[in-house]
Amino acid sequence: MNGPGGLENVNPQVFQKSDKRTVTAEEEDENIADKFDDREIFDMIRRINDPEHPLTLEELNVVQIDHCEVDDDNNRVNVFYTPTIPHCSMATLIGLAIRVKLLRSLPERFKVDVRISPGSHVSELAVNKQLADKERVAAALENGQLLDVINQCLTFPNMKR
């Protein structure tokens, strides 16, 4: 059942943002090629806006650094995300926003896999199947209205709404 204004989760729990990343001398040195790591992937997706609330996915604890996995040597990135409620109708849209952000931000050599955290959503298998299907993702991104919503999720919070 939806609450006031059509929101499914009227009063979501808001979490503390994680600490600012400490940048090492090696990371600042342009002559050293540093590998992508879990923190870098998290930093790419943490500020994605939730489609229903004026909060980021980090603030809602939908994305967490320990659910981001990078294998730079084998060009793989895996991200697990946790919707705020088990029957969230926005779960696929959130997954698409995460996937689009990573595809736009990472070199093309990476295979990106975005999935719902096991046991956190009633339609986990169906959503994961959609997000893993390249043709379905491509078709979704050809839908202008859907792409507008995704792009809105990817703007900085103070620019949204």
Please outline the major beta sheet. Answer: 3 strands, mixed
Provide the residue-averaged pLDDT: 86
CATH architecture classification name? 2-Layer Sandwich
β-strand percent reads 5-15%
Overall form: globular
Order of helices and strands: HHEEHEHHH
Poorly predicted parts: none
Distance between the termini: 25 Å
Approximate helicity band: 25-40%
| Structural class designation | alpha+beta
Reading off the top of the CATH hierarchy, the class is best stated as Alpha Beta
Write the CATH fold name: GMP Synthetase, Chain A, domain 3
Number of domains: 1
Strand order of the main beta sheet, please?
1-2-3
Number of helices: 6
- The beta-strand count equals 3
CATH superfamily: Fe-S cluster assembly (FSCA)
Query: Any idea what the radius of gyration is?
Result: 16 Å
Please give a handful of descriptors for the protein shown.
161 residues, alpha+beta, GMP Synthetase, Chain A, domain 3, three-stranded mixed sheet, 3 strands, 34% helix
How are the SSEs ordered, and which strands pair?
Elements: H1 25-28, H2 38-45, E1 68-71, E2 76-81, H3 91-105, E3 111-116, H4 124-132, H5 134-142, H6 144-153
Short synopsis of the structure:
This protein is 34% helix and 10% strand.
Task: Write up what this structure looks like.
This protein has a single domain, classed as GMP Synthetase, Chain A, domain 3. It contains six helices and three strands. It has helices spanning 25-28, 38-45, 91-105, 124-132, 134-142, 144-153, and strands spanning 68-71, 76-81, 111-116. Strands 1-2-3 form a three-stranded mixed sheet. Helix 3 (91-105) packs parallel to helix 4 (124-132). The radius of gyration is 16 Å and the shape is globular.
